[in-house]
Known about the structure:
By secondary structure, this protein is mostly beta strands. It has 1 helix and 17 strands. The chain has one domain (2-314): monomeric porin ompg (Porin), CATH 2.40.160. A 14-stranded antiparallel barrel has the order 1-2-3-4-6-9-10-11-12-13-14-15-16-17. The longest helix is centred in the N-terminal third of the chain and has 15 residues, at 2-16.
Amino acid sequence: MKNTIILIGLLFSFGCVKAQDPIFSQFFMIPQSISSSFAGAKEVANAGIIHRTQWPGIDFSINTQYAYVDNWFEEMNSGIGISVLNHKETTTRYNFTQVNLNYALKVQLNDDWYFRPSISLGYGNKDFGFQDVLLGDQIDINNGVIHATSIDPVLLNEKVNFFDFSSSFLFNNEKSWVGVTLKHLNHPNISMAYKGNNQIDLFLSVHTSIAFPLNTSYGRFEDEDSIYFLSNFMKQGEYSRFDVGPQYVKGNFSFAVLAATNPIRNNPNSHFLTSINACAGFKYEGFKFGYSYDFNTSKIGKTGGVYEISISYEFDKNDRCWGCPKYY
Length: 328
């Protein structure tokens, strides 16, 4: 009976609330996770992975992984890549996996600026693990047995498969970039109920990395030392988030501190500042490593925060990558 009540509660919740996309605080370290326009952007074979653990200090912990591999095709003036996103909630056993094929075209606008439109085609699967839930009609008290099947129609949709379509574009020079991503343009139906209709809301992201090279006249900084202004505004349905802050790059090291805010507060009791996110990065022999920790500033309790670990690798250094967007 208890599991039946929990199941009903889950169904009610997921039937009334639109699913939200997983996000990463390190969007500037692995920008492929937020925009398909970065496919092949380094103009060499490139691969990476990022792992995110959210709220490990409470029972409702969430783990998310994103991995990608892409390459540049000079004859097509294009980049092509494949990415995989996996997201799991420990308490509900909700699991979401999606594989995307990404294509980006490089268009030179003038001597300094480039335009990179892209499309992304995906195939996703959502699973709530209903096969492990014991329903009331499976319990045979008279005979003292548990039946393996149930007539509850919800078991017919323990998994949902769907196709997804997204698009992005990016403007960049050799130091800075600004882009826009629109995910779920076809509004896939992810309803678990029989003949239900629960479409994924459109996901909007507006992201920037603006470079401010440091003055080298006094010999304190190297030519590549810069401060970057980072921002990422995201909106999906009634939910929004705006990450903003500086990143300092010195040689092979980078440090960033971003504020995660809730700019469109539908609830007057919600917090404007939700966390402070600190990130450190290091590059070595084609590898790039990143670690970030989100310090919770809301009253949600002792969640254990959010941390991310990222690793990426460029298979062949390209010193003649004219117009490639830089990210550290």
